[in-house]
Amino acid sequence: MSGEDGSPADEERQPTPIGGPSDAGVEPLLRVEGLTKRYTTTDGFLDRLLGGGETITAVDDVDLDIYAGETVGLVGESGCGKTSLGRSLPQLVEPTSGSVRYRGTELTDCSDRELRERRTDIQYVFQNPTASLNPKLTVGDIVGEALTVHDIVPPDRRDDRVNELLETVGLRPGHASRYPHEFSGGQRQRIGIARALAVEPEVIVCDEPVSALDVSAQARILNLLADLQAAVGLSYLVISHDLSVVDHLADRIAVMYLGEIVERGPTEAVFGDPSHPYTEALRSAIPEPDPRWEGDRIVLEGAVPEPADPPAGCPFHTRCHRIIPPDRYAFADGVFRRLLALRTDLAGAETIDGLRAASEADDVPTAIRAAYDLPGELADPAAERVLSSALGQLERGRPDAARKQVDDAFRSPCERHSPTLQAGPDHHPIACLRFDRAETDSHRPDRTDTDGHQLDRTDTDGHQLDRTDTDSHRPDRTDTDSHRPDRTDTDSQPHQ
């Protein structure tokens, strides 16, 4: 529950050790293996008959374990497949392939009747409480419906049980006679939680439980979830696009990008170093209430891939600020990322106004270098020769030749190799070639810079060490409760 100062009493929470349960022979409560979910964009019978439309892979070969009494946070940008994964657990959507096992029972093989029974063990709290609550039913009917459908308590005790559930989530028994529109957003989310609790589940999937709420209401809902877990031993999968939300609750975090898990591990490890470049960007977006904090926001550049046409190699390479350069060149920090921007624009030069304008300047090479913030001369002589030649081709009106030169020379290993997410001894796997010894050894460059420039570096094991000032955008997390709102629930009364 909460301490006297309103902060969560951390000593009461006993999160499951990351990897510890499996090391100790403890089986997960819920195990997901190789889960894949694909959607098609066919609109009708003719599209299906003629094979029209596209196939979108929302979830791609995902593995995930949830142990009893723990909270797993699933984070990523909107559209990365988090909700499809979450809804696949209670089989609200049917996976295309893969396995979902609850206490050893394969849910994908269950009949409709068996699934109905299993959904009393796995419940779902939807992102939008306004859309998920029937506006024509009273709160008492909404919460009590599950009791009736599953025949959990005798009919003469259902009203009492509904009142108990409302009190459990911080509402009053008198609210049972009111309708959803009479409540605030935070209170409607409490009603959704009460409905999920009605069947006494072991696992609750919380899909963006606080994304539609203001900051104070967010804190109260998160604290409510933590209190319920401490009281009855619930397990959660908390889906969010905001790392600060899962930091408040999660024992472990899985980071999802374009349908794949790119990093997972204990919360403190994911918030620490090393981490996936995408996780670094998500962390840098967490607002800090300290006006003295001078962290740097990582703004991801490059095109966001289409789920129907994902890129080859690492799915994040089109936006990665730590993309690995080709092994035969050495670049100053950030230069290779800007060269990739030039290469990408050359591939679609007819639509890039800035590149076309630079190509019409009096001094084309200088104008293009300025447009892409490239130095007047690259530190690596071989790379400089390729770039100068390509810019010369543009100046002579030969964009195809320039495109081929840049494309052949400046292709990253991240475009050719797909990183793997493999568990290590620290239970913190990261799907990034910088941490994949087999891949990085195959393209480890000699980073000696005779010109004295700051270059991307590798350590003796071949790991990419381009981590200059990585702490400049990482908030101090030694006192995570110092800026959490007071847990006093001022939202317990409905709007009049």
> Can you tell me the CATH superfamily of the largest domain?
P-loop containing nucleotide triphosphate hydrolases
In percent, how much strand structure appears in the residues?
5-15%
Structural class: alpha/beta
Helix-strand topology string: HEHEEHEEHEHHHHEHEHEEHHHHHHHH
Shape category: elongated
Low-confidence stretches: 1-20, 437-496
Provide the gyration radius in Å.
26 Å
Secondary structure elements and their pairing?
Layout: H1 20-23, E1 30-40, H2 45-50, E2 55-66, E3 71-75, H3 82-88, E4 97-102, E5 105-106, H4 112-118, E6 122-125, H5 129-132, H6 139-149, H7 158-168, H8 185-197, E7 203-207, H9 215-232, E8 235-240, H10 243-249, E9 252-257, E10 260-266, H11 267-270, H12 277-284, H13 335-347, H14 353-359, H15 364-371, H16 381-395, H17 399-409, H18 437-442
Parallel strand pairs: 3-8, 3-9, 6-7, 7-8
Antiparallel strand pairs: 1-2, 1-4, 4-5, 9-10
Helix pairs in contact: 6-7, 6-8, 7-8, 8-9, 14-15, 16-17
Key phrases:
496 residues; disordered N terminus; 10 strands; 18 helices; Rossmann fold; 2 domains; four-stranded antiparallel beta sheet; alpha/beta
